[in-house]
């Protein structure tokens, strides 16, 4: 069922982002991991004004005194929960984890139940994705009724193959997960966007991973990305709530900057004040 | 009989269902999901799905993640 969050008034260019028939006013997706406390997470999510939050699926701790549950700190009526398959190194495991996540979210009645942020990793040190495993898992999950938002590298052809496998959104990384290096290869992100949106301009492409500061969000959005997904840059900032505000504005500013159309870069200066009527000596004239 | 639950060996009575196992672990009120031998046991089947000797069970919930 299509559902649209009300866009903020008066700001031009704030059309909602639509993925698999669901629309979101905010183009910033935020992870729920690595905050010092759940309360800090809740405040940061609120400050980010995001509509979608990611979560992970993990073993219940047996016999331990039950601590507070993540879900006690997430307003299920406000956020769409996007479960991930983080930590999976094979298509088989990713499909298992996706199905477990869906089963939990169906109990909660969350609209994100049949969505999955697919991660099939190739290496623990770099957390770079396994392209063939990602394509295989995308096919299997789509066949099982999932809306797949697939994390991938910034390789344009890998991104294209994942789209062809049926992904609802392809999410190239700016740089490795949690690295804070921002968008390392702008040209590759532009090529991803060009290939993924060829003949399909509304296909959603979200830059996922690598954001370190607010400016990285603006860069990704200015390149034409439809959204940004991040976690560590907020959760591990000195002041996560302040950084969440910054990310919110940076994504919105980057989007408006993209829509407004930037000037071309030039080697030489072009004066903003007229030459005509200058009373000064001008060298060379 | 013996089953493995989240990598720990447990003794349970023959005929124990997934639902009974979850309640025994005091997870009855948690938003959790279960799989047996790498296959999801949907929530609606927890009460009817009986465990067998040697089953490998995973019980999971949602945690913070990116």
Tell me the layout of helices and strands.
The complex is a heterodimer of chains A (285) and B (66).
Chain A: E1 17-19, E2 22-24, E3 28-31, H1 38-48, E4 52-59, E5 80-83, H2 91-108, E6 115-118, H3 131-143, E7 147-152, H4 156-164, E8 169-172, H5 186-197, E9 206-208, H6 214-222, E10 227-230, H7 232-235, H8 240-260
Parallel strand pairs in A: 3-4, 3-10, 4-5, 6-7, 7-8, 9-10
Antiparallel strand pairs in A: 1-2
Helix pairs in contact in A: 1-8, 2-3, 3-4, 4-5, 6-8
Chain B: E1 2-5, E2 8-11, H1 18-24, E3 32-36, E4 39-41, E5 56-64
Parallel strand pairs in B: 1-5
Antiparallel strand pairs in B: 1-2, 3-4, 3-5
Structure characterization notes:
Chain A is an alpha/beta fold. Chain A has one domain: TIM Barrel, CATH 3.20.20. Chain A contains eight helices and ten strands. A five-stranded parallel beta sheet of chain A has the order 5-4-3-10-9. The relative contact order of chain A is 0.14. Chain B is mainly beta and 66 residues long. Chain B has a single domain, classed as Beta-grasp domain (Ubiquitin-like (UB roll)), CATH 3.10.20. Helix content of chain B is 11%, strand content 38%. In chain B, β3 and β4 form a beta hairpin. Chains A and B meet through β4 and α2 of A and β3 and β5 of B. β4 of chain A pairs antiparallel with β5 of chain B, so a sheet runs across the interface.
């Amino acid at each position: 069922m299509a559902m649209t969050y009300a866009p903020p008034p008066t700001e031009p260019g704030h059309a909602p982002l639509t993925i698999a028939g669901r629309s979101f006013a905010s183009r910033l997706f935020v992870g729920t991991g690595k905050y010092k406390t759940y309360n800090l997470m809740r405040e940061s999510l609120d400050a980010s004004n995001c509509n979608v939050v990611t979560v992970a699926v993990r073993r219940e701790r047996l016999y331990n005194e039950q601590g507070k549950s993540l879900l006690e700190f997430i307003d299920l009526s406000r956020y769409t929960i996007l479960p991930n398959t983080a930590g999976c190194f094979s298509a088989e495991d990713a499909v298992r984890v996706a199905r477990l996540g869906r089963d939990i979210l169906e109990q909660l009645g969350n609209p994100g139940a049949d969505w999955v942020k697919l991660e099939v990793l190739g290496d623990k040190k770099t957390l770079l994705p396994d392209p063939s495993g990602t394509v295989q898992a995308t096919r299997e999950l789509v066949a099982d009724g999932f809306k797949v938002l697939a994390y991938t590298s910034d390789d344009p052809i890998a991104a294209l193959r994942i789209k062809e496998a049926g992904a609802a959104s392809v999410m190239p990384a700016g740089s490795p997960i949690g690295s804070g290096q921002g968008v390392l290869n702008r040209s590759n992100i532009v090529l991803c966007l060009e290939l993924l949106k060829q003949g399909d301009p509304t296909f959603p492409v979200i830059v996922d991973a690598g954001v370190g500061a607010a400016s990285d969000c603006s860069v990704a959005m200015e390149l034409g990305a439809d959204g940004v997904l991040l976690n560590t840059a907020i959760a591990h900032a000195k002041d996560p709530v302040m950084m969440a505000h910054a990310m919110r504005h940076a994504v919105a500013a980057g989007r408006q900057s993209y829509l407004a159309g930037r000037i071309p870069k030039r080697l030489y200066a072009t004066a903003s004040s007229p030459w005509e009527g200058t009373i000064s000596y001008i060298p060379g004239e | 009989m013996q089953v493995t639950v989240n990598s720990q060996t447990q003794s349970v009575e023959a005929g124990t269902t997934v639902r009974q196992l979850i309640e025994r672990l005091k997870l009855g009120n948690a938003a959790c999901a279960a799989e047996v031998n790498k296959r999801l046991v949907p929530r609606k089947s927890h009460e009817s799905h009986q465990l067998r000797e040697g089953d490998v069970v995973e019980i999971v919930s949602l945690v913070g993640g990116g």
